[in-house]
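Hi V.,

Quick status before I head out on leave. The structure for the redesign project is tokenized and pasted below; the design run finished overnight.
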């Protein structure tokens, strides 16, 4: 996708879902690794990870742009725009934007350790080996065990 297409899509989404213009910069950033996008308030710039478009398609890209536009428009209005603020969560809900990115399939393949809770059965995947004596399940505080390595 060309940069001008990304800008066109962002402006259209901003007008359609927020009824406000997007007058700043949106760019692809190949160096983003663990996130689909980010909003930089000091530059008023939205950066998008091009891998998400390449691996997961236009629908996921639109969701990421809408999420970042929520940060953008709240910042412009002088309202709290961090993930925990109720204004941000309300705007996500109103615009039907995703709160989190789905993990990239290419990154999921790198997670070679599968850990499971012995109590509730929750599964966790990790790239690196962890000391299971130090950690507990985040949902029920049960003991963890290594399933595959």
């Amino acid at each position: 996708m060309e940069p001008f297409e990304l800008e066109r899509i962002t402006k259209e989404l901003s007008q359609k879902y927020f009824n406000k213009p997007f007058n700043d910069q949106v760019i692809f950033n190949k160096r983003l690794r663990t996130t689909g996008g980010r909003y930089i308030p000091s530059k008023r710039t939205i950066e998008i990870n091009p891998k998400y478009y390449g691996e997961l398609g236009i629908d996921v890209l639109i969701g990421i742009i809408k999420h970042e536009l929520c940060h953008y428009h709240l910042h412009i209005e002088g309202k709290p725009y961090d993930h925990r603020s109720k204004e941000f969560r309300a705007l996500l809900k109103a615009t039907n934007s995703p709160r989190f990115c789905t993990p990239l399939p290419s990154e999921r393949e790198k997670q070679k350790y599968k850990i499971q809770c012995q109590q509730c059965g929750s599964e966790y995947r990790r790239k690196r080996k962890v000391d299971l004596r130090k950690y507990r399940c985040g949902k029920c505080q049960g003991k963890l065990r290594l399933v595959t390595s």
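Above is the designed sequence. Strands lie at 25-28, 37-40, 45-48, 113-117, 123-126, 144-148.

G. will cover questions while I'm gone.

Best,
W.
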